[in-house]
Structure formats: structure tokens, C-alpha cells
């Protein structure tokens, strides 16, 4: 009886070239290809070095600074820490003290850019990990893998955000590391890396469900058994190891920081995000509502200051704020619906869809957050509709860029020119950008959902 083998959906669908006859010499490989490690990685580093030097010049000669305000917050917190104080002595520091500890060298004379260099190197290492993942776990040729990894390595947005002093490149390295380790059957190490990632920034916790569903997926038996037996069957050594290592790492880091900084660590690092109202530079569909909430909070505070204990204060306290409930649809999609629908088909594909949904539905959405899902593009593009159908790909990229540009034009009028563009300008622009993101998310979900479960182990 003959059997047929279905090729992995993660590999190219182009037919294999005919094997040369013994009398025909094999075709020579081109030595002029751009996509070699000796060219791509130096180019990636040169791009970041150029932006670092340009940023230093712009900071010194322009009123519009290149350095991100977040980097100034980081370095101020590091200065307080180096002086024996708390990083939370710096107003608006909402991060783990671990970041301030690591950035203490920025307080040394002449080392102000240490953190920028570290973030830039981290995102280059993340790109290297992406290329390794494609080669080791997908069997892709190194030059082709570097082509896809260059979507991250040579992306000017990625390089710009890292060299301005945003720490998102470190999160990119962490998430790329989780994918590589899980695919390499190292659940304990993957759990440690994910535990560190969730401590540094909360959002990577959404990947835990996808990883658990993906682990040991190919070992599930097909016999009909009772519900209890099937539930017990899902508890495998790999899943237990991953869960235990992730939780232990996360809880240990939190216990250490709580020991040093007490309740202010919990408030500023975690609890603050439940009620935060970042109403500036926010692409989110909730942006206009957050503006209104911020204005109402300021008015209530002024009223309470004038008449403590008055009715206005009681009314404000009883008001249900949008920022406290906006996470519900976001978490429903990214933690439950998408993982259960896609994780067994492709781990990186599911993680891309999760992240895209998390960012699109988040109450705060800035350009830095785009790096959270851009890190997965090199692992998704080999089988994406956006490459198979160039018109679709160009149209999606164009719509994404244009929708951002329209929002930025409205945001510029509001925040720099002082013009009131809330309605309809800013609100319509936010809705437009949200609609484009939901459309792109739908294409990603359809692509990943069309893969064979467990195809290629990728």
C-alpha cells in the first residue's frame, strides 16, 4: 500500500529543481549574494551606530530631541539607585528595578549612551536568533533565513526605537529566545526566560498558554476516553517543567524586588497598568475616551481640593472608568481564543496573532509596541498570504502606514499646534487605524489556521 507525505506548510511551495545528471556539473552558488552573515550583521550594526551618532548630534543641536523620554526616565532612575535611593523616586518610573540596576553604568561620566548600545545589541542578537530558528527548526537555507531575518535586522523602525533608548529590543530578544528554546525542546530554560520577560514587562504572560498547548502536541492520543483521563493526559512532564520554571523565576524576581522596595514596587510595576491613562501619543481606539477620562479626573481633583468630601468626589469615585475594563476584550482574544485556535498549528504564528491582538486592542498603543509583533514576522512570512499575494501585501503595508500617518497628522495638530481635533479628526483616525489592524489580524489568523496541526514541528 502506498503512502503520501504532505510537505510541511512552513517550507516553500515551489517545486524542487531537477537533480543534475552525473555528467552535468552542479550549479555553482553565487558568491555575490547580500544575505550572508559577513554582510547582514555588520550592516545591522552599522545602521544602529549611524543612528546613535546622528542622535547624539540631534540632541546637541536641535530643540526636538532624538533620545526618547523613556530613556531619560530610565537613566534618572538609575541615578537614584546608584545613590542608594529607590528608582521610584523618579516620577513616572513604571518598570522593574532590575532595569535601573542594569543601567547604573549610564551614571558614569561618558557612559550616558550605555543603555542605548545595550538595547541595540540586544535587537541584533534577537535577529540572529530568528535566523537560527529558521535554519535549525524549519530546515531553511541560511541565506534564505537571513532574508527573512533582515525584516527585523535591517528594519529602520526597529533600529530607530532601540537607538532612541527604548528597551523593546530586549523584549524582542526574550520572546525570540522563548520560541527558539521551546522548539528546541528545552522547556525548563524557556520557562526561565519567559519568567524574566513577564517580570520585565507584563505582556509576555499571554504566550504561556500557547506554549503549553504546543508542548507535546504531537504525542496526544486519538482513542476516545473519559474526560478526566483526557485532562490528566494533558499534564505532561514538559508542561509541568515549563510552568514550574516560569512561575518560580517570576515569583523569585518579584520577591527580591518586593524585599528591596516594598509596596511601591507592586504599585508602579504592575498595579499601575490597570488604571493608567496615557492619553498622549496614543494610537488606540480608546484614545479619545482616555483624553476625556484624564480631563474628568483633573476636574474632579480640582473640585475635591476646593471642597473636600463633597458630592463631586463621591460621584467621581462611583464612576466606572474605561481604563479599568478595556483589558477584557484584549485578554479574551490574546489569552484564550487565539491560543486555543492556533497554538497547535504553529507556535510562532499563534504568538504573532496574540501579540497583534494584544497591541491592537490595548488601551495604550504607541509605535514602540509595534516591535512586540514585528519580532515574529520573519517566522510568519515564509507561509504568509502577504508574500504569496504581493498585491495583498503591498496593500496591507500601505494601509497600515497611511492609517498611522493620518493619525499622526491629527495628533500633531492637537499636541503641537493646540488645535482641538478630538472629534471627528482624532476619533475617526483612531477608528481607521484600528480597522486596518483588525483586517491584518484576520489575514494572519486565516494563514496560521490553514496550516496542518503540528506541521513541521514549527
Report what the structure shows:
The chain is mainly α. Among the domains are: 168-216 and 235-275, no CATH class; 279-296 and 323-457, no CATH class. The protein is 65% helix and 0% strand. The protein is built from 21 helices and no strands. It has helices at residues 37-61, 69-82, 97-102, 114-138, 142-153, 156-163, 168-183, 187-200, 207-214, 227-234, 237-261, 263-275, 287-306, 311-318, 327-342, 347-360, 370-374, 377-380, 385-388, 390-415, 422-449. Helix 9 (207-214) packs antiparallel against helix 16 (347-360). The longest helix has 28 residues, at 422-449. The radius of gyration is 24 Å and the shape is globular. The two termini are 29 Å apart.
Short description:
This protein is mainly alpha-helical and 458 residues long. Helices cover 65% and strands 0% of the residues.
* Global outline: globular
Instruction: Count the DSSP helices.
Output: 21
Gyration radius over CA = 24 Å
Going by helix content, strand content and strand pairing, the class is mainly alpha
Mean pLDDT: 84
Q: How would you spell out the order of helices and strands? A: HHHHHHHHHHHHHHHHHHHHH
Q: Characterize the largest beta sheet: strand count, sense, and whether it forms a barrel.
A: none
* Strand composition percent: under 5%
Share in helix: 55-70%
Q: What are the low-pLDDT stretches, counting only 5+ consecutive residues below 50? A: 1-30, 310-318
Number of strands: 0
Distance between the terminal alpha carbons, to the nearest Å? Answer: 29 Å
Protein name: GPI mannosyltransferase 1
Pfam families: Mannosyl_trans
Region (Disordered): 1-34
GO cellular component, one term: endoplasmic reticulum membrane
Amino acid at each position: 500500500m502506498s503512502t503520501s507525505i504532505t510537505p510541511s506548510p512552513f517550507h516553500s511551495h515551489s517545486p524542487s529543481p531537477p537533480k543534475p545528471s552525473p555528467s552535468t556539473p552542479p550549479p555553482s552558488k553565487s558568491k555575490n549574494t547580500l544575505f550572508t552573515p559577513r554582510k547582514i550583521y555588520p550592516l545591522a550594526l552599522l545602521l544602529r551606530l549611524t543612528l546613535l551618532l546622528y542622535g547624539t548630534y540631534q540632541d546637541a543641536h536641535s530643540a526636538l530631541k532624538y533620545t526618547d523620554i523613556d530613556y531619560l526616565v530610565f537613566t534618572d532612575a538609575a541615578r537614584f539607585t546608584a545613590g542608594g535611593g529607590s528608582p521610584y523616586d523618579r516620577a513616572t518610573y513604571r518598570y522593574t528595578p532590575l532595569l535601573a540596576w542594569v543601567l547604573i553604568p549610564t551614571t558614569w561620566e561618558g557612559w550616558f549612551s550605555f543603555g542605548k548600545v545595550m538595547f541595540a545589541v540586544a535587537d541584533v542578537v534577537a535577529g540572529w536568533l530568528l535566523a537560527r530558528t529558521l535554519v535549525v527548526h524549519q530546515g531553511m537555507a541560511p541565506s534564505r533565513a537571513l532574508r527573512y531575518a533582515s525584516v527585523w535586522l535591517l528594519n529602520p523602525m526597529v533600529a530607530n526605537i532601540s537607538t532612541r533608548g527604548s528597551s523593546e529590543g530586549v523584549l524582542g530578544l526574550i520572546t525570540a529566545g522563548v520560541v527558539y528554546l521551546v522548539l528546541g525542546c528545552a522547556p525548563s530554560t524557556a520557562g526561565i526566560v519567559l519568567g524574566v520577560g513577564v517580570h520585565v514587562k507584563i505582556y509576555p504572560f499571554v504566550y504561556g498558554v500557547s506554549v503549553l498547548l504546543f508542548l507535546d502536541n504531537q504525542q496526544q492520543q486519538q482513542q476516545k476516553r473519559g474526560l478526566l483521563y483526557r485532562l490528566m493526559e494533558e499534564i505532561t512532564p514538559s508542561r509541568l517543567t515549563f510552568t514550574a520554571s516560569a512561575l518560580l523565576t517570576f515569583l523569585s524576581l518579584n520577591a527580591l524586588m518586593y524585599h528591596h522596595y516594598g509596596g511601591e514596587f507592586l504599585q508602579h510595576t504592575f498595579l499601575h497598568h490597570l488604571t493608567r491613562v496615557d492619553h498622549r501619543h496614543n494610537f488606540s481606539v480608546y484614545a479619545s475616551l482616555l483624553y476625556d477620562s484624564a480631563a474628568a479626573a483633573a476636574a474632579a481633583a480640582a473640585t475635591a481640593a476646593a471642597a473636600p468630601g463633597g458630592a463631586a468626589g463621591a460621584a467621581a469615585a462611583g464612576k466606572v472608568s474605561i481604563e479599568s475594563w478595556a483589558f477584557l476584550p484584549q485578554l479574551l482574544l490574546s489569552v484564550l481564543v487565539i491560543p486555543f485556535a492556533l497554538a497547535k498549528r504553529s507556535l510562532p504564528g499563534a504568538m504573532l496573532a496574540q501579540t497583534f491582538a494584544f497591541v491592537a486592542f490595548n488601551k495604550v498603543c504607541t509605535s514602540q509596541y509595534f516591535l512586540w509583533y514585528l519580532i515574529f514576522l520573519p517566522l510568519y512570512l515564509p507561509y504568509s498570504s502577504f508574500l504569496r499575494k504581493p498585491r495583498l501585501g503591498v496593500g496591507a503595508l500601505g494601509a497600515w502606514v497611511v492609517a498611522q500617518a493620518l493619525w499622526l497628522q491629527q495628533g500633531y495638530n492637537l499636541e503641537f499646534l493646540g488645535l482641538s481635533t478630538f472629534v471627528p479628526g482624532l476619533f475617526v483616525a483612531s477608528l481607521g487605524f484600528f480597522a486596518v489592524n483588525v483586517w491584518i489580524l484576520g489575514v494572519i489568523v486565516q494563514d496560521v489556521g490553514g496550516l496542518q496541526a503540528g506541521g513541521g514541528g514549527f
